[in-house]
């Protein structure tokens, strides 16, 4: 090869010397966190105020376990069941075309979201002051009798003493459940509105009623948006059961732990025990929330959409077998509104 030809050949570029990006801030943050963690562990292991042996001996006693099961867990489950059921009904009322239902549901959510739960529990704990006896029958019977000149007319079927029914547990349940229903109504309403309106239109084209559309088409798709905040509300409800000591409800976890601390003059160790119990229960709820979110999130996300497209391509190349069974739901991301397929 001549010299002129050699000079025309392009020289091979040198390899790139890549210099990694420095992140000094990360290492400083890690160092600070390591020091804080070491300080925290040092306090836990060396400070005698924690009284670990006393705490472990008392946090598993029968009164505390009974307060955990019969008070905290039972109250959480009962309040959430009532709150979710009532919240769904109020959400449907908020989305109704009837102005009266919309107004009543808005007033309900406005009131119970505005009043703190501690205040509500205090009010329901003393609501027996309003009525010493609760009776069922014709309303305004005495006033109707006076209107027609009949004194002392009572058209009542049965009744009972308010103190027999409005116990501490029932008062706490009413306060927590009614308050939770207001928050769940907004969560469910947002979930329903997140569903593509074409889903409801497609269901109506198939002859479904509004109730069937809500149960079989809209709510199943809205669950993906409803489950995460509902899980957060459940954990918040678990922690809010500690407010029941102001009703008061004696058969409750925090009430029993506080009673042990005051009786033995070891208040701080029992408060730490309460933190450990609530951490354990919240962790269990977080695990359940994770599996629920994964179940109702099937068919969503970039990975699932890619799999859906691959299945469609495979079906098309295989002779159009994908058209054999269309559904109302359309595509898995909720944007489709197909009403049915035809044989391939």
From TrEMBL:
Its main location: membrane. Residues 69-289 form the ABC transmembrane type-1 domain. Keywords: Amino-acid transport, Membrane, Transmembrane, Transmembrane helix, Transport. It is a multi-pass membrane protein. It is found in: Cell membrane; Membrane. Residues 321-344 are annotated as: Disordered. The lineage of its organism: Bacteria, Bacillati, Actinomycetota, Actinomycetes, Micromonosporales. Signal peptide: none annotated. The chain crosses the membrane at residues 27-45, 65-93, 114-132, 165-185, 267-292. PROSITE patterns: ABC_TM1. Belongs to the binding-protein-dependent transport system permease family. This is Amino acid ABC transporter permease.
């Amino acid at each position: 090869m001549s010299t002129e030809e050699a000079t025309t050949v392009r020289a091979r570029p040198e390899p790139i010397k890549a210099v990694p990006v420095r992140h000094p801030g990360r290492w400083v943050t890690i160092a600070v966190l390591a020091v804080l963690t070491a300080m925290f562990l040092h306090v836990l292991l060396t400070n005698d105020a924690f009284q670990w042996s006393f705490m472990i001996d008392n946090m598993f006693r029968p009164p505390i376990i009974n307060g955990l099961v019969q008070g905290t867990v039972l109250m959480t489950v009962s309040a959430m069941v009532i709150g979710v059921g009532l919240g769904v009904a109020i959400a449907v009322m908020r989305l109704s075309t009837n102005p009266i239902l919309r107004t009543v549901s808005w007033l309900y959510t406005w009131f119970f979201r505005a009043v703190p739960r501690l205040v509500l529990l205090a009010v329901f704990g003393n609501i027996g002051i309003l009525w010493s006896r609760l009776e069922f029958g014709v309303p305004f019977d005495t006033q109707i009798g006076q209107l027609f000149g009949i004194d002392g007319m009572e058209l009542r079927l049965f009744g009972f003493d308010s103190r027999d029914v409005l116990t501490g547990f029932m008062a706490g349940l009413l306060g927590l459940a009614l308050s939770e229903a207001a928050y769940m109504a907004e969560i469910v309403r947002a979930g329903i509105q997140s569903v593509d309106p074409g889903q409801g239109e497609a269901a109506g084209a198939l002859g479904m009623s509004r109730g069937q559309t809500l149960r079989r088409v809209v709510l199943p798709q809205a669950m993906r948006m409803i489950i995460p905040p509902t899980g957060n509300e459940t954990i918040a409800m678990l922690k809010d059961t500690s407010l029941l000591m102001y009703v008061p409800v004696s058969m409750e976890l925090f009430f029993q732990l506080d009673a042990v601390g005051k009786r033995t003059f070891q208040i701080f160790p029992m408060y730490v025990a309460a933190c450990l119990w609530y951490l354990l229960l919240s962790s269990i709820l977080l695990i359940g929330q994770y599996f629920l979110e994964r179940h109702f999130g099937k068919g969503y996300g970039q990975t699932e959409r890619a799999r859906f497209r691959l299945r469609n391509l495979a079906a098309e190349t295989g002779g159009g077998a994908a058209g054999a069974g269309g559904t109302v739901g359309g595509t898995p991301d909720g944007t489709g509104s197909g009403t049915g397929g035809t044989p391939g």
